[in-house]
Amino acid sequence: MSSPSGDEPPQRSVRQRPGVSDESVQHSVIQRVASRTGRSSPLSLPAEGSEHGASPVIDASSRDARGIPEGRGSYQVLGEIARGGMGVILRSHDTDLGRDVAMKVLLEQHADKDAILQRFIEEAQIGGQLQHPGIVPVYEMGLMADDRPYFTMKLVKGRTLAKLLADRDQPSEDRPRLLNIFEKICETLAYAHARNVIHRDLKPANIMVGAFGEVQVVDWGLAKVLTDGSENDEDLAALQTQVSIIETVRSGSSTGASESLVGSVMGTPAYMPPEQAQGDIDRLDERADVFGLGAILCEILTGKPPYTGGRDVIVQQAARAKLDDARERLAGCGANEALVELTLRCMSPARGPRPRSAESLLDELRVWSATQEERMQSAVVEAAESRVRALAERKARRLTLALASTVLIVALGGGGTWFEMERRAAESVTALAREVDDHLARAAVLRGEADFDGAFAACDKADAVVAAAGMDHELGERVAQTRQQISAAVETAATRSAEARRLDDFLLELEDVVLGEGLDVGASRVQRGRLAAFQSAFVGYDLELFEGETDKIVERLGLIGRPVSVAQALDEYARVHRKFGWDAVEATRLTELARRLDPDPVRNRMRDAIEREDRAALSGLLDSGEAYTWPPATVAMFHLALGDKGIVVDIEPLLRACQQRHPDDPVINQVLASQLLRGSEKNFEDSLRFQAAALALRPNTALYWVRSGYAQAELGRIQEAVESFQQAVRRDPAAAWVLGIGHENLLERMDERHWLPATLQIMEYAHQVDPDNLASRNNFGWFLIVRADSEGGDLARGIALLEQCVAADPDEPASLNSLGLAYLRTGRWREALDLLQHSIEVQDQPDHADTLGVAIALWHLDQRQLARDWLTVADSQAPHPVSDASLFWQLRDFVAMADVIRDG
Predict the structure, then answer these.
(1) In angstroms, what CA-CA distances link 304 with 152, 270, 535?
(2) What is the mean pLDDT of the chain?
């Protein structure tokens, strides 16, 4: 480890220049040649043919467009094309070469910001050194008259991939062309990765597609050169002999103003990997771009990026890699299974399963394309053979019919016989039509009764009559029309049924968010997850609550037909925002929608009091006595509002009265059980009884099982508590808070001799339920290690599990720390030190477990003074026995191992 330098970088002042005089203006090359030869050289090619036209000037009067490049009289700035967070792009005309260029100039407000200035210069340097058809070439870099840097680039004409995707009517449209574009994107990124450069902001809006099929990756403003601290460092010497490394002003040192950017989230959340969304900028490598490529491929196949919703929701989804919706969309997109599987691997939450670089992804994509081409060729050959066989069969049938007609004419003979047969034929046709009509009438009746199978069966009978007669094309058409009407009715019924199911699913989803995990859990991370779930539910039902006219949104919500239930969800959605202070504007909007949708005067008085934070009004609602007539949803809303405002009243009688009136309501049973578990007058037996009633109504809610475990632990029923936690894990393996917050709270209710064995049972069960989950595997392995020296735990098994975790994701701090401390137990000091130091490197800040382990390892490697220094750091981070009880107990054996350093 090396500590950053404490030296302050020199402050850069921006030198403002006075207006440039006429005498100091430098003439262009063309002007100088004209002054010598007496004539100019106005050579100009016809304008580029482009289906997209020229890049438009959106602001010809822009203040930046009036700037003058220092020493470049040949540039005529025509106006502003676009503006970003770091620079403005101007359309300029180079009069010497007779071409338009894009000139990017640092924004005036950033001129004194060294970090942004440095990144701006790096973007130009990277673009200037990356020489590939898929990357917009940078022509030159210079200073404007006011000392702001600029660089010029090729003026890209075309449409973005985002525009191409948005113009499709459905995701399957134009898929082969888009996959061809995607392959070119991969080629460009493969080249950049070979030069040790990652883009870090891949998205369809940063892909330009020209009129003649050219594909270019643009906006390299967040690009990073992987020369220090990346996993490529061990191969750097070999790479330097094979390809030239991109160099920027930051390449030579890990210190400088850019360090202030570490830990920030840069990029576009809808397309970024979890490590980037979590702000671990220094951990990013080529696999971050591979995730971005997978996200683009996901949008090509499904029409949407991996994460959708509001900005905050998307950030939360990206940080937690919540890809359930993307997986469902990919499964139903109709694309080739191998291509879908490749997309999912690119977007793997863990970096290990992703292709190592764009080149690896490109190789797999080309193999897939070759396989598809072979299949298409086989299909073409098979279709051609089928057409030949059908043609031969048609010729044979025509010959047979011609012979039969000849025989019939000879047999009929005289005219009288001919007319008699014609009369009989007419009667036969009439009877035939009547029989067909009877079947079609039956089909119409059955269609009206929604018996579509019976209606199609009646059509089959009509078809059989027509086919047996071998004539009357009109009757066949009538049968076909009836079939079409039945098919249309089937589609209409299916649409209605699907809409009904969709509505049911939406209401169940809202109910799960309101009543499910985290209803009254105080942890902000749990509540952030609930916010994301609320947003996902409403957006999934095509309801955007924060945009558009309130009247129209209320009208749309009213069509759902469950105003009280939906208003309850809106109230809870708003409450979470208010409780944690996340977005007061959105909370007000949600309450207004609830008030309009559910105009109940009592609930609206409560909503008013909550919005005004009127404690007296809230307390008065209880004192009035009318609260005892409220339905369960209103009582629960009132109970939670009192808790959020810190108003201490005796709410238990109201909760019990409501439960007696509504014994089968899950929410009132759950709220009452929680109050009896945590309130001032605890009653664990009754809490367990009401929790059991809630479980009987909603047995798959993990929170209810956890609360049951708490009550059982308080009553000394340790094994029952363990089994309740195991049930919570089985019902929802993804509910990480069960093994986090829930497990820590369980510790408070058990004494030391019970807690560790109980924990081991819970963690082992979690691993058995979801053996591929690295977090569960790490937890189980770690607690085997914690237990190893007491009660004869399986140390070797724990180490094996932790080694699997590190192999699957070599940069996961929790696994690195767990395995490092495990190696300390077996005296593998050097290996332990390497793992713990790497754990520190991949985190923003070292934690107590890492620093404590490093001190122990260094001591046993005879680096005594350094070990004492690290122990000082570790002691300053030590957990408190009460507030951090769980961590305190887990590390106690390692604290004892460190005592030898203190004694030495």
Answers:
(1) 34, 10, 16
(2) 78
